[in-house]
Amino acid sequence: MFDATKTKADEKADLDRFENCLEALRDLSDNAKIFCLVHKMDLLQENQRESIFQDKKNKIMELCGTDFGKRTEVFRTSIWDETLYKAWSQIVSILLPNIKQLEQSLSTFCQTVGANEAVIFERSTFLVISHHDSVNHEDVHRFEKISNIIKQFKLSCIKTNYQF
User: Per CATH, the architecture of 93-164 is what?
Assistant: First the structure.
């Protein structure tokens, strides 16, 4: 995780630590996937966010080089919006070995039952694992909203001693 608001000196220290991690990965796990979050993007002025994110992403990707470059994902995140939820959902999906088969099964399921959309959430965190939709949806935050509704329902069940 990289802090988007750090000074150049602190950023250099972070990049040095990241480079040390990359060296360890080269020795111990050279086929690893790497996920980097550029966090606290909300604290930046809106007109600077894109350029600062691209600058940090370029530095990260430069360090990854050809060894890890194709297996590295960089996400911009904040705790104050849906970006962190979205990033973690994508990370979980990427890590699943059979995600393509799951996506195909969701597509078949939707066609079979005539559903516009189907979503699979992870059981304990309610992160989106996969989804299929056959129509465009205006609300891009719907998965996070559904996840929060399910979490609240789960808490209500726990409080009333009903099994979720």
Answer: 2-Layer Sandwich (3.30)
Strand partners, 119: 131
Alpha-carbon gap, residue 56 to 153, rounded angstroms: 39
Fold of domain 1-81: Rossmann fold (3.40.50)
Q: Checking DSSP bridges between strand 34-39 and strand 2-3, what pairing results, if any?
A: parallel
What is the edge-to-edge ordering of all strands in the sheet holding 2-3? Answer: 2-3, 34-39, 72-76
Instruction: Please enumerate, as own/partner, the contacts of 137-142 that have beta carbons within 8 Å and a separation of 24 or more.
Output: 141/82
pTM: 0.78
Q: pLDDT (tens digit, 9 = 90+) per residue, 49-63?
A: 999 999 999 999 999
Tokens of 115: 């559903």
What does 58-73 look like in DSSP terms, one character per residue? HHHHHHHHHHHGGGEE
What is the tens place of the pLDDT at every residue in 87-115?
999 999 889 999 999 999 999 999 999 99
The residue extents of the domains of the chain are 1-81, 93-164
* Cβ atoms 82, 88 nearer than 8 A: no
Report the Cα 113 to chain-centroid distance in Å: 29
